Amino acid sequence: MNPVPPELGPNAADVAVSIEGVVKKYHDQTVLREVSLKIRRGEFLTLLGPSGCGKTTLLNLIAGFAEADSGEVFIDGRPVTSDPPHLRKIGLVFQNYALFPHMTVERNIGYGLRMQGVPTDEAARRIRDAMAMVKLDGLGHRKPRELSGGQQQRVALARALVIQPKVLLLDEPFSALDKSLRGSMQVEIREIQRRLGLTTVFVTHDQGEALAMSDRIAVMSAGVIRQIAPPAELYQSPQDPFVASFLGDVNILPAYYHGKGAGDVQLRLGSGLISLSQDRLVHASHEGERLDVYVRPEHLRLENLHPASVLSGTVVNHVFQGDHINTFVDVDLPMTARQIVTVRSPGLTAMRQWPVGSVAGLALAPEGVSVFSPQP
After folding, report:
1. 28, 26, 20: which is closest to 56 by C-alpha?
2. 270-310: per-residue pLDDT in tens?
3. Which of 156, 198, 280, 324 has the least CB density, counted as fewest CB within 10 Å?
4. At what angle do helices 120-133 and 149-162 cross, to 10 degrees?
C-alpha cells in the first residue's frame, strides 16, 4: 500500500481526497490554476460557482475522466492521477443520469457490479439493498422511459451507491427536476450520505442547494478556489468581493475610511458614521480611502427617519415573497448616482408602515457588513 503523502500533514488519515496543485488547460485556455483542496472523510463538500469556473473539470479530474496537465490527485492517500476511472472506486451521478434505455432498473443499477465481476447472488442482494435505500422497491423490471424524472434520478443514485464507492460525485444532479421534487431529493440524498458516512463532492451553480446541503462549500471563479468554509461562515464572512456578491443577495454601498476607535474602525456612509470590528476590513486603510460596504438585505432595517439615521431614502417598491417582504429604497448618497438598495423584512409590517413614496431611515447591523476595496 502506498504511503500517505507527507504534505497532507498529521491528520492525513482524515482526508479522503487530496488535490495538490492541479493545472488543467484546454488548448490555450487555462481552466484550473494550481488548485489544491483536501476533502475530509465522510464530508459533503460542494463546488459552487458560475458556468465556466472549472468546477465540473475539477470533478472530472477526481473521477478520472480528465487528465491534469500538472499536479496530483490522491484518494485515500494513494496517487490516482494516472489511474483510469474504473480503478478509482468512484460513484458518479451525472446531470442527465446517463441510464441505459434498453436495460431494466435492476440491470441499470447492477451494471457496475457486472463490470467488477461480483458473484450473482451477492450482486442481487446489493441491488435489492440499493433499491430499498432509494425507495425503488417494486420498480426493478421497468425501463427508464417508464419512470418519472425523480425515479430516474434514484436509479442513477442507486447505481452509484451499489458499488460501495470510496467517493460519491454528484454533477448538477437536480437540474432536470422541478422545484418541489428538487427539495425533497436534496433531503433524501443528504440523509443517505450521512447514514453511510460517504465522502461526497457535489457540483452546482445553485447557491440555495449549496447552502442547504453542504458541510463546506468551495466557491470557484476563473479556475481558482476563492474561499472554502462552512455555509454560515462563507455567507457571513466572505473573504473577497466575488464571494460576497455571488453567494446570496447583497447591497454594495460606497463609503470612506474615517479612522480607528477602541478596537473598531469607523466608516463614513451616507450622512453618518458606522463603527465596525477591524476583522470586517480585509486590509489596512488610510483616512479618506474609498471603500465598498457589502451588506445583506436582511441586515438592513427600515426605521422612522431621525437625525442619527445613517442612511435615508424613498421607498419605491415592495415585493411580497411569502415569508418575507423585499423593500426597494432609493437611498440618498452624496456624490453618487441614484442607488436602489434592498431591505428584507419578515411579515407585512414594512409594506404597511412604509408605503411606496414614503421616506424612511435605514439602519444596518454591523455583524452583517463586509468591507472591500472598490472593484475595477
Report:
1. 26
2. 777 888 887 777 666 778 888 999 999 999 999 998 888 88
3. 324
4. 140
How far apart are the C-alpha atoms of 30 and 40, rounded to whole Å? Answer: 27
Q: What is the DSSP string of 30-70?
A: EEEEEEEEEEETT-EEEEE--TTSSHHHHHHHHHTSS--SE
Could you tell me whether strands 199-204 and 44-48 are parallel, antiparallel, or unpaired per DSSP bridges? parallel
Instruction: Return the number of other C-beta atoms located less than 10 Å from residue 356's C-beta.
Output: 12
The set of residues, in sequence order, having a beta carbon less than 8 Å from that of 178 and lying 6+ positions away, is: none
pLDDT band at residue 183 using 50, 70 and 90 as cut-offs? confident
- β pairing state of 224-229 and 167-171: unpaired
Residue 255 carries which side chain, given as an amino acid letter?
A
| 228-262: pLDDT as tens digits | 999 999 999 999 999 999 988 999 999 888 887 77
Closest C-alpha among 137, 132, 136 to residue 153: 136
User: How many Å apart are CA 286 and CA 340, to the nearest integer?
Assistant: 28
Tell whether pTM > 0.90. no
> What DSSP string runs through 189-210?
HHHHHHHHT-EEEEEES-HHHH
| pLDDT tens sequence across 327-359 | 999 998 876 667 899 999 988 888 889 999 999
Neighbour count for residue 289 (Cβ, 10 Å): 15
361 CB contacts (<8 Å, ≥6 apart)? 302, 303, 304, 305, 306, 309, 310, 311, 312
Structure letter (DSSP) for residue 281? B
Q: How far apart are the C-alpha atoms of 97 and 24, rounded to whole Å?
A: 26
Look up residue 3 and give its amino acid: P
Rg (CA), the chain: 25
